[in-house]
Amino acid sequence: MNWLLAILLSFSLLSNDYIDINTADEETLQVLPGIGPITASNIVEHRELYGPFMELSELEYVCGIGPETIAMLEDMVFVDTSLTPAVDTLHWIGKVDSLSHVLTVSYLDVGQGDAILVEATGGKTLLFDGGPDAGGPLEPPVVFRLHELNVDTIDILSFSHPHADHIGGLASVIEHFTVLEVLDPGMPFVSWLYEDFLNAVMDKGCDYRFLESGMTFQLSPAVTVCVVSVGSEDADLNVNENSALLRITCGNFSTLLTGDMEERSERTLTPVTLPVTVLKVPHHGSLTSVFPPYLRRLSPQIAVFSAGRNNSFGHPHPRVIEIYRELGSEILRTDTQGTIVVQTDGEVFSISTLMVGIQSGEIH
């Protein structure tokens, strides 16, 4: 026991001096309770890969550390926030009331699900995800939303992953609108909704191909779509984690469409992630889709939450909303504001909302 007290005293743990978790080396970290050589190495590796910790609770994202260990460390370590970099907002652009737009992105109010309409002025229209099926004889919410926006032709239809709250309305979209091309993320998945969708594609004779990571295509000379990721070959990842991600850019404006991606995918993407103007928040604002270093790299100026009113899943989670507010992001929500319409000329952007007959679907 005397040797342990000597070590603790040597590092001033019995005084008022604390260890800075962002600067301590592996040897120093190992004197802390619950931190052995492997965990100390994991802490340093995490810092080098993702940047400094912004608060003590972020240690929970380090392999080998749980809430109990963090509770033991509260009186022994600290985070010197004066040495941590401020959130990068250099990519944020001006917001105006109206403009002559080159790109319109509508985050559709389809209840508990996702559907995003991307329209390039004088160019092509992309629908990414189709929200839930309405059930029974009713038409899915996405069909009504597209009619509200006077859509008749969809040049490209795609989706993030084949869960019901993302593809439930797509078969009806193909039946009610002219759809020229379908881009499928190509995930093995069995469901009658997915089967109905594929049958509709064949019946209408739509061009059909697969999304591929790194693929890019133009909606107009000014609007580019980049496929950031189409999941992973890791068999342990669930369907949510394998969500396809699309990044839409127009001049200095960008939006990232994320499906239901979760923490493991966010970890993988963090080192190569670029800042974004508008983020479609992953997984309707679930706690499973929050990896702080990833969100700091994105540093979204606008965070759009797509969820159903009074949904039984508690989306978006209050803590997730708080995290985005701490980043300085403006919060927009389809469950309280209806369809969110963002328009840009590539230099500035405007925001409007369309609240008509809000749906409250419960498909997850």
Summarize the structure.
The chain is an alpha/beta fold and 364 residues long.
Structure description:
This protein is of the alpha/beta class. The protein is 26% helix and 24% strand. Strands 3-18-17-4-5-6-7-8-9 form a nine-stranded mixed beta sheet, covered by helices on one side. A seven-stranded mixed beta sheet has the order 10-11-12-13-14-15-16. Strands 1-2 form a two-stranded parallel sheet. A hairpin with a 4-residue loop joins strand 5 (116-120) and strand 6 (125-128). Helix 7 (170-176) packs parallel to helix 8. The chain is globular.
Low-confidence stretches: 8-15, 358-364
Name of the CATH architecture of the largest domain: 4-Layer Sandwich
Helix content: 25-40%
Strand segment count? 18
What number is the mean pLDDT?
Answer: 90
CATH class of the largest domain: Alpha Beta
Order the strands across the largest sheet as they lie in space: 3-18-17-4-5-6-7-8-9
Instruction: Encode the helix/strand succession as letters.
Output: HEHHHEEEEEHEHHEHEEEEEHEHEHEHEE
Which structural class best describes the helix and strand composition? alpha/beta
Strand content: 15-25%
Biggest sheet descriptor: 9 strands, mixed
Number of helices: 12
Q: Might you state the CATH topology name of the largest domain?
A: Metallo-beta-lactamase, Chain A
Number of domains: 2
Radius of gyration: 23 Å
Shape: globular
Instruction: Give the CATH superfamily of the largest domain.
Output: Ribonuclease Z/Hydroxyacylglutathione hydrolase-like
The span between the termini is 54 Å
